[in-house]
Amino acid sequence: MPHPRRTPLAAAAGALAAVLAVSPAPAAPPAEPTATGNAWTADLTVVDADDVGVRWTDAGLRLADTASRPAAQRRQTAGGMLVTAPHPLAAPANRVRADVEATPGGAVEVAARGWRSGAWTEWRSLSGAAVFDQPVTRVQIRVALTAERPTAAPTVRAVRLVADSVAAVTAATPGLTYRVYATREGLVGGTTANGHVIVSRDHFVALPSARGLAPKNTGDYTVRVCTTTRSRCEYAPVWDMGPWNTKDDYWNPSSVRESWKDLPQGRPEAQAAYQSGYNGGRDQFGRVVGSPAGIDLADGTFWDGLLLTDNAWVDVAYLWTGSGTRGRIGSGPLNIRSGPATSNPVVGLAATYANVPIECSVTGQSVSGPYRTTSQWNRLASGHFVSHAYVSSVTGAIPAC
User: Fold this and answer.
1) Domain contains 32
2) Does 382 lie in the same domain as 304?
3) Is 141 a member of any domain?
4) Contact, 146 vs 18, CB < 8 A?
5) Same domain, yes or no, for 342 and 226?
6) Does 4 reside within a domain?
7) Which residue among 17, 27, 66, 313 sits deepest, i.e. has the most Cβ atoms within 10 Å of its Cβ?
């Protein structure tokens, strides 16, 4: 049976961005993408591990074949998405526009994100244009397809893009942290919105918006989740959408927030619905909200990272809204310690692929790890420490403490 609080992948894909107007498909195939430049055609032909439920055919990008699915499932809404390879720009730009050629039927949604200051922006809808707070040097595109039934499925022939610059919009406040209610996701064996198959005691989180959804096997969007006493924390990538909603980026200010702009920044819609009857006590799909949850935790994050035994309030930092040096955890879950030695108490975990904020480094116990043998320990923004032996890459410079 489906999880009572979650939304099928197809519905999640349908909530990724505003539906774009489509035009009839041309007879010719899409042009080959250029290697670099500010006008290019997205390469839709490469379907790989970070893509979900789509395939490339002579006709174009389509949903994966549903013929082998049980009849009951074939009657349900189908959806899938493709994430293209990052495209380098010839010149930095802060606006991206798209022209989409697709056959009628179902819905096509296209979103973009940009690389700047050593990190990715949030995904932005290309219905109209995506405008970033500062110029970006690379752009990545995500194409989502939704079909109400197999006979009404879209086929995308081409997505042509142009990047240029306009007056910048106000940036989100860096380092946003809010106290929200956390629930345990479970669903071992299920598939997340980014295509990850959930394993026992997994380490990731779900947020109710696609704007902070990391592609499979990346920590491009990472949160730091801590107990309210700060006795335990985990750094974990955002790999799923939910609970309850899929268009509620509640951490953003109302000027940026996709839905429910009248709610205070940091207040999830589900919390407002549950506590004060907001939206008639229902989520975006019309379901009666049964908890104030603003984040779902995979079992390993819930049980091992935070040592929780029941749903609880937690403090969540949305790390992509911050700035500064980031280190990628290449092998985890990695112990986070109170000091620069394995004899110091463990105060939490950092999941594989998590991007952790590094303030500075100190010399401590020498550790042999998968990437190096080193006595360097990195102090995180929480004041805790991780061995550099387990950090696969760093964006930015790490000063001495």
Assistant:
1) yes
2) no
3) yes
4) no
5) no
6) no
7) 17
* Cα–Cα dist 156/145, whole Å: 9
Best CA proximity match to 349, nearest among 314, 300, 393, 282: 300
Residue 95 three-state SS: strand
- Measured CA to CA, the distance from residue 3 to residue 15 in angstroms comes to 18
Exposure class string for 107-144: b at 16+ Cβ within 10 A, else e: bbbbbbbbbbeebbbbbbbbbebbbbbebbbbbbbbbb
Q: Are 94 and 168 in contact (CB under 8 A)?
A: yes
Residue for token digits 């809010």? 178
Is 153 in contact with 147 (CB distance < 8 Å)?
yes
Last residue of a domain, one of 131, 164, 197: 164
pLDDT tens-digit series, residues 350-400? 999 999 999 888 899 999 999 999 999 999 988 899 999 999 998 877 877
Q: Tokens at residue 302, please? A: 């819930």
Q: How do residues 279-333 score in pLDDT, each as one tens digit?
A: 999 999 999 999 999 999 999 999 999 999 999 999 999 999 988 888 999 999 9
Structure tokens given for 324: 């500064």
Total structural domains within the chain: 3
Burial class for 291, CB neighbours closer than 10 Å (0-12, 13-18, 19+):
middle
| Cis omega (within 30 of 0) for bond into 4 | no
